[in-house]
Amino acid sequence: MEKVISMNAGDGDSSYAQNSILQKNILLRARLWLEESIRSWKTIFDCETLCIADLGCSSGPNTLFITQIITSEIRNKYAHKGIRVPEFQIFYNDLPSSDFNTLFKLLLAAPPAERSYSVAGVPGSFHTRLFPSRSLHFVHSSNCLNWLSQVPPEIEDKNSKWWNKGRIHISEQGPEGVGDAYFAQYQKDFNGFLRARAKEVVEGGRMFLVLPSRLSADRRQPSHLAFLWETLGFAIKDLVFQGIIEEERLDSFNLPLYSVSEDELRCEIYREGSFTIVGLEVMIGGLGSSTNKLDDNEKGKFMCAQARAVLESLISYHFGERVVEAIFNRYAEILTANIIQVEEYMNQSPITALTLERNVSISTMPTKISCC
Ligand SMILES: C[S@@+](CC[C@H](N)C(=O)[O-])C[C@H]1O[C@@H](n2cnc3c(N)ncnc32)[C@H](O)[C@@H]1O
C-alpha cells in the first residue's frame, strides 16, 4: 500500500500543491497550538544545529508554511532568552513515491530571507526508523497519522465475517467488526511510529502532531470525515451498476485511513511509554470552509478536487486509469447533490493537535497500563 499512496504530483490544476486547502485550514487552526508547543518547551539545547523533521510533508505550500512557523518560533524563543540561535536542519520525509522535486523547487523559489535553514529529503515510511538515534530535536507531522500502512486484511477477505463487501470504509451499514479491524491496524502502525521516534528524538525533544480524529468512542460509528469516503463508495457502486466497474473490484477495495478517538490515542501513547502528553486539543470544525462564495455545483467540484488530489493514485492503481475520470465525475455529482450534509460534516469534523515530549529517564515513564 505504501508503494501506491502518493498525493498528486507537480503544481498543475489537479496537484496536491493546488488542492490542499482543507489541510491548510487545519494548519491555520492548529497554528496557535504549534506556537504554544514551542513556547512552553522548557528545554534549551546547547547545540550548533537544531534538527527538525516534517514527517509526511508531501509537496506544496503547506510544507513551507509549517517550516516558517517552527523556525521563527524557535528563533524568537532563543533570542528572547538571549541565547545564540542555532542553525536549523530541516528533514522533509514522505514515502518514496512523493514528489520531492516539486517541494525542493518551491523551497528554492522562496525569498532567501525566508530560507534560513538547510534542507534534506528523507524518503521512507514514518512507521519505521528513518533517522539515526537521538538525532532529532523537534518533529512535526500534520494530516498524516490517519494513513495506515495497509488495509486490515480481514475486511478484504471473502471468507472473513468482517468482509466489507460493497463498501470502501467503516459504515454504519457494514459488518460491525470493520471498525475494530481498522483500529487493530492503527495500533500496529502508530506503535511502530512511536517506537521509531522514541529512538530518534533526543531526551526532552518534542513532537507536534495534527491528525483528523473521531468524537465517538464507538468504532462502528464512522468519523465525520468518513462521510466523504462513504460517498466515494457510492460513486464507485454506481459505476458497478452501470457495468463499467466489476463488482469484485469494488469488493476488494478499502481506504487505508483511520480517524482515531482521543482515548485510543492517549492509550497508545501511554502503552508505548516513551513520550509524555504535554498538550492535547480537539478542535471541532478544523477543516473549516473555503467554499462560501461558490454555488452548490462548484462546491461539489471543489470537494471532489480536494479528495482526488489525495486519493487518485490509489483509485487509479486499483480500478485502472481508464475509469478514474468516470469515478470522480460521478463523485462530484454526488457531493453536489448532498452538499448541505457534506458541509455539515466538514464543519463538525474534529482535528486533534498533540504535543508530546520525549521522556528524560526511565524513572519518569508512565506506568504501563492496558486499557484498549
Ligand atoms: C494529506 S498529506 C499531508 C501533507 C502535509 N503534511 C499537509 O498537511 O499538507 C498526507 C501525506 O502523508 C504521507 N504519508 C502517508 N503515509 C506515510 C508513511 N507511512 N510515511 C511517510 N509519509 C506518509 C502521504 O504520502 C502524504 O504526502
How are the elements arranged and paired?
Layout (H helix, E strand, L loop, with lengths): L20 H19 L9 E7 L5 H20 L6 E8 L5 H10 L8 E6 L12 E7 L35 H23 E14 L11 H16 L5 H5 L8 E2 H11 L2 E10 L11 H24 L4 H14 L1 H10 L1 E9 L14
Helix pairs in contact: 1-2, 5-9, 8-9
Bound molecules: S-adenosylmethionine.
S-adenosylmethionine binds next to strand 2.
What labels would you give this structure?
372 residues, alpha/beta, Rossmann fold, 8-stranded mixed β-sheet, 17% strand, binds S-adenosylmethionine
Description:
- The structure is a single chain.
- This protein is an alpha/beta fold.
- Strands 1, 2, 3, 4, 5, 6, 7 and 8 form an eight-stranded mixed β-sheet that branches.
- Strand 2 (87-94), helix 3 and strand 3 form a beta-alpha-beta unit.
- Helix content is 41%, strand content 17%.
- The protein has a single domain (21-362), classed as Vaccinia Virus protein VP39 (Rossmann fold, 3-Layer(aba) Sandwich).
- The structure holds S-adenosylmethionine.
Quick description:
This protein has 372 residues and is of the alpha/beta class. Helix content is 41%, strand content 17%. Residues 364-372 have low confidence and may be disordered.
